[in-house]
Queue: 4 jobs
Job 1
Amino acid sequence: MSVVLAGGGTAGHIEPALALADALRRADPAIPIICLGTARGLETRLVPLRGYELELIPAVPLPRSLTPKLLTVPGRLAGAVAAAGDVLDKVAAQIVVGFGGYVATPAYLAARRRHVPIVVHDANVRPGLANRLGARFTDHVFSGQPETGLPGATYIGIPLRAEISRLDRLALTDESRAYFGLRPDLPVLLVTGGSQGSRAVNRAVLGAAEDIRAAGVQVLHILGPRNEEEVRLAPGGPPYVTVPFVDRMDLAYAAADFAVCRSGAMTCAELTAVGLPAVYVPLPHGNGEQRLNAEPIATAGGGLIVDDAELTPEWIRGVLVPILLDPDRVVAMSEASASMGVRDSDDRMAAEVLKIIRRRPGRRARHSAGSRVG
């Protein structure tokens, strides 16, 4: 039952694929799992770290919408489809599960030509072109958001790593705070701008750092690996811990009472799964999907949304600090955040994938080179 996972480029595509891979392995430790990727994506680092086989195909960036630019890529796309088909043939793929990104389109087209079942998962409210194309080839379409632009999609949530989806924040609070050098007796604000950090978020929070500390609040601030922001803080007072990145985000979530962050689909899914309230700062560019990700959480009372330009040291002093000093409000927001979370998407999606495979009448015959796309 060889499973091919196609989700590359960004962590938002890769992490759900790897979470599904982990769930499939829990259900069947012997199942062969192969990840498709490109040489330019984060998958070249993330997939091997998680212990899965990675097969690379050429990257063919596609526009986010159906525009005349599509006419410029057929030659390169044909080569990528052929490469994806070679992988499907080599591993005798029984199913292709796509999560979007550069690698998904060639995988969908190669699978369709070979009559290999296709499963599509899109994490965002506004699906990308690859998943809109893939959804035309299959009835097995799942979404990470209750409202989605994929017709006929079943809402299932976003598959998350088990250390996140099964995290008990309260049970690990003291251990997690000790891990980061934080005190056990003071509230903790977690600040993160995503995998690469955010200069705007960093500057706003650092500009209010002394006010936050003066209020008796500790900070765990993930600056980003490429950030060059100079951090100058007065000696003494509650800890203000700055780090370039964190490998154990489960411990960061467990240490925190509140967060300031962007509102990518994965971030929103993780924070609601663990019940951590947040100030969500959507990216000021793109198609507006980050605001759409955070709006249901804010409506439920599990967070606040503030525009990038409005996140200033003054806003933090006047709005955020009073919330951090109100334990009853923080608890209520935590409960509201948790009410929006989906913690079992990985296992539910793994069960769907295995069900589709087991419905097949027999193993697919390998195709000859003459049957390949492109």
Job 2
Amino acid sequence: MTTQQSDETTQTASVEPITDAETLRERDDVPVHDDEDVVDEGTLDVVDDLDDLAVVGVTNDDGAVLLRRLTEDCEWKLPVEEVARDEDYADAARRAVEEVVGLPVALHAVEAAWHFEARLADGDRTATRDFVVFSASPASDAPDLDDLPVDAAEDAPAAVGWFDELPADAEEAPGTRLFFD
């Protein structure tokens, strides 16, 4: 796998830019999971206003998975980042770890995608949301977690750690279980 340094961002040659999650349906190596629900108009409006998400499962050499808590009150979860319309999911995935957590990573692959469609009972209106799940590992020059600036910046996470098992009270973004046995 070839990595390149560009604009202070670690890029992995095997992960192509993805600006439309629907294109993942054309790939044989990416399972796409569909879910739909009939909702009321208020819920539909909420879903319609939400951005898509890039979810990142970062594993270290021992197979442990990186989880983070953004505040002392939130639950442990994989790094996730909002993806605006026409934005690259891979760039958002890197940002979720490199900028939010402070850990440079190499993205390896798109592991799966989830497509959620909310619709009104009469079918007049729908809203969709996509989740693209990436696998990654710390970049070769990545610092130890103990050296990360946790809670040093305003938007830094309150805590980060390596986990062999998913904590019972963890928040599970789509794809979380792909990284835990």
Job 3
Amino acid sequence: MPTWWKFGFVASLLVMVGGLAVHVGIAKPEVEVTHDVVMWAGENDQTLSWGWGPEELPCDIFESCLYIEVHHTDSCDKQLRIEFRLTDADDNFVASKELVVESPQKSEPAPIEIGDNENDFEFFHVGEVFCTAAPLSDTADL
């Protein structure tokens, strides 16, 4: 095989490999994610804003509870899904919880009791509140 064929073959191979690298780089660009991962969100779920509720309200459903005030629940036709986790006195993880309640359907902030009947935790860490059509829960699931 003549020397110029070898040179042409190597040059063609380098051009093809370079073109393939450019194609892969364009077809699958790297994306930097800058937000927390959402564990589950259905098609119709809508995130609602909330704030801490009154501290003086008694626990009606749970042994240990707190209240949050959820804003614009009138945009939820069915239920609210509230995600939270429990930690001990040293802020060690105890459990992740989810509570589904009927939507109060109010334009002003609505107080919602969240809680649990477990006794091995100290703090509630409330995550997100969603509009949902999930089945109701009268107690938070473990």
Job 4
Amino acid sequence: MACNSCSTADGGAPKGCKNNGTCGTDSCNKLTVFDWLSNMALPGGQEPFDCVEVRFKNGRKEFYRNTEKITLSIGDIVATEASPGHDIGIVTLTGELVRVQMKKKGANPTALDLAKIYRKASQKDIDIWSAARDREEPMKVRARELAIAHQLEMKISDIEFQGDGSKATFYYTANDRVDFRLLIKDFAKEFSIRIEMKQVGFRQEASRLGGIGSCGRELCCSTWLTDFRSVNTSAARYQQLSLNPQKLAGQCGKLKCCLNYELDTYMDALQGFPDFDTKLYTEKGEAICQKQDIFKGLMWFAYRENSIQWHVLKIEQVKEIIAENKAKNKVSSLEDYALEVPSAPEKDFNNAMGQESLTRFDQPKGKKRPNKKKRPSGEKQGAPKPVASGEPNTNAQNPNRENRHHRRPNKSNRNEPKK
């Protein structure tokens, strides 16, 4: 996600608007809603809806009533009613879509006890708000140290300051109930501020903090998912996934929410399948189901005595054998119904040119060639090797040139007369 203010740095990398979650266009934030009614005018005589949606830290959103009829638009920083004092937030949605969002989240648009918007935030309000947010990270580190000193089984996941800096909300996670009365006294003494403790679930903690999932994208709970349904291990069993907690668990430590996305499709496909515990009775023995392929409509069976060899059957053939077994008849064997599975061709992992092999380093090294024999000291280097009579002269470098060494006469025969 990126806003219109995000520019591009050298090399094509996004530079970012550097607003760290307080982007004016609200496009860099989590759980944003596109206002597709922004360019449409209201019918004549109808007044605009007087409630607006305001976002606070980490995607927390609340609805407020605009009793003062202030002209507000998306991205405006406003001061809202809080207890005690006031809070600072950013307007994320106005108009008729706020009514739709309130109905979706179970809020009553006509409720009289709805909090109000005081005014648009002044520069002084924004400065106090920014200074309070800068204190959150060092306070979180110190708060965790105090919780460890009290030996409490809890984790301080996040701290959120109120806009006027008068109160801080500590979000924590814990498996059991925690007695933190002494811890709150130490917090108030250490930070000199009003303390409020709020427990959140592990999934809510992951949605507040955000992150990147194993799929390489941002977490669903921090971008668009708002309702956290319970996920059971049966969802993984129906999809024939290995029950490996390291792969099935998300950043919250619970089962991934995406296991429920395709569960309905698998459940519909399994309606036409026989039960996995179905047993087939043949003359060769009893056969047990070993594996299913839901989308291809195949089932693998093996004899109880020979569980290594599997036979592939279609679900129509399995139902036919089940009907015979119900009639107290045994089929001859599974081989009469099994499909012939073509053997997969062997893969050659050489490169496209066929010059190198991936297993070239696994081959044993050849023996080293013996060194060449040393020439005798009397023989000159580069001298031609004597040739026996009747053999071709293979030592000549140039066949068109005569070898002067063989045609040179001996010194003892130079002065002898020619015959």
